[in-house]
Design a protein that fits this description.
single chain, alpha+beta, 2 strands
C-alpha cells in the first residue's frame, strides 16, 4: 500500500528529528538527516539513507582559543539546530497526517462499496 510506505518513511524521519533534539546538549553529537526517495515503480515513499550532518558546531571564541587537539574535539558542542529540527518535525507531522487521512478515506470508500455490493 503506497500510503502505508509513506507512513513508515515519515515515521523514520520523525524518529531522526526526535533523536537529534534529544542529543542537542550531547558534546560532539552530529545531527542525523533522513533522506526520502520515491518508492519502487515511482509509487510511495521510502527512506533512501540516514546520514550524519558533518557541519561543525561553533565553539565560543574564548573556549576555542584555550583548547587544542583532543580537548577541543571533546569540548565541541552538538551541531543540532533546534529551529531546523522543529520545522522538520512539523513538516513530517503534516505529511504523516495527510497520508493517514488518505488511508482513512480509502478505507471508508472501500467500506461503502462493499456495503453497496452486499
Amino acid at each position: 500500500m503506497v500510503n502505508a510506505s509513506a507512513l513508515d518513511a515519515f515515521g523514520v524521519q520523525a524518529w531522526v528529528a526526535a533523536n537529534n533534539i534529544a542529543n542537542v546538549n550531547t558534546p560532539g553529537y552530529q545531527a542525523q538527516r533522513a533522506s526520502l526517495t520515491t518508492g519502487p515503480d515511482g509509487r510511495g515513499v521510502e527512506v533512501e539513507s540516514i546520514r550524519r550532518d558533518a557541519a561543525e558546531a561553533p565553539l565560543p571564541a574564548s573556549v576555542e582559543a584555550s583548547l587544542s587537539g583532543a580537548a577541543k574535539d571533546a569540548a565541541s558542542a552538538s551541531n543540532v539546530d533546534l529551529g531546523r529540527e522543529m520545522v522538520d518535525l512539523m513538516r513530517t507531522e503534516t505529511a504523516y497526517q495527510a497520508n493517514a487521512t488518505v488511508i482513512s478515506n480509502q478505507d471508508a470508500i472501500t467500506g461503502s462499496l462493499i456495503d453497496e455490493l452486499v
